[in-house]
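Exercise 4. Each item below gives a protein and its sequence. For each, produce the structure-token representation.

Item: Glutamine synthetase (Actinomadura hallensis).
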Amino acid sequence: MEHFPEPVVPGQDLDARARARLGARGSSESRRLAGLGIVAVALTWVDISGITRTKTVPVERLQDAAAWGVGMSPVFDAYLLDDTIVSGRHAGGPVGDLRLHPDLDRLVPLAALPGWAHAPAFRYAQDGTVHPLDTRAVLRRRTERLADDGWTVKAAFEIEWAVSRGGGEEFVPACRGPAYGMTRITELSGYLRHLLTALKETGVTVLQLHPEYAAGQFEVSVAAEDPLGAADTAVLVRETIRAVSMEHGLAATFSPKVEPDSVGNGAHVHLSLWRTGTEGPVNAMTGGDGPCGMSSAGEAFAAGILHRLPALLAVGAPTVASYLRLVPSHWAGAFACWGQENREAALRMIVGADGEQPTAANLEVKCLDAAANPYLVLAALIAAGHEGLGAGRKLPDPVGVDPATLPQAERDLRGIGRLPASLAESVAAFEADEVLRDALGEAVADTVVTVRRGEIDLLDGATPEEITAVTRWRH
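Answer:
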């Protein structure tokens, strides 16, 4: 194995020495991949609309791409979900260039796409400085800020998707079995077997897979990892699902609303806060004397997220269609509250089975969906939790029922507010939240608002059926 001294830290500015080291490693990786039959590498990024976009290079060009990047217009961050372009202060228009550099630490062959490899990209300006709209770099910065105070986060996304047999724009469920039924596994056993095999061969650790509630809907859960790795894995899992589906003559949709009269696809995020103790890493979400056994730090981190949920939705529920999904009594987490194992609360505290709490205890954020950029979602969640830590925030009393069943007067008394019911409401909350805007940076925050307002205008006056149809196959 070749040794490369002074490794380059991805997401930090590049100088001549860093470019030389990246090029040397890119050359080595190029030879390795070519020996595996890889002919091309897809460099991906996720735009502000939550769509994974790419530029690819032949494997023999990986050395050059690693050192000098691949040219790309900054305009892509101003794309709406239908590929129309809006203009903000930091994105939009034909002028400018940035460079995509593959993150070689996350470079993997794609088992579902033989001959192809995947590398998420960091984005740089031509002078080697980190581009202000690079959401992977934003997430890395938020993780480093948290680490400066001695904390780390483990995270994972649950991925929900629905499978269609239709060849056109309509959704035709690929299986007819009941919700959560073994019948669906039997109907699509070959497809699901292929999917699990492809994920394993790509290096993804799958914890479980099961049929979900909606027609043709499934969910896969993966192992928790560092935040940047968790976001990269979320992209990798979705693209693997998409590729395997197409090979079986099916179409996969991750849209927050596939059919207007059915539940939608979520992308719940699991988070746990950790600190290194005298005997190794310690999970702050358990082992304390706070609510559900949380430590004071774990409670403060969770309370910080709960406090900022309305603004967080502009990042984590980023489409007009998201608010067709985010309705009460649909297990979507439509109320700003928390509860132990309460699947109607926006924050579900999971304590784990007796004996596994030190590793299993975590917080599930349920009000998010797969139209979101996973890097921005985790960056915003970490920023909110970090602020909660600094402020020593406390959680309100937990909610042990479906909040929608409580009288309005009781909800008011207990401070259980309805989360925004529209994208416009969440954007307004985001604009008023200085903590989140500062955490993401001016360029990202301004572009988030610009793109969200663009989608609001695009779908102004549309019916739920029209909104669903426009959104169904975009994510």
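Check: The longest strand covers residues 152-164.
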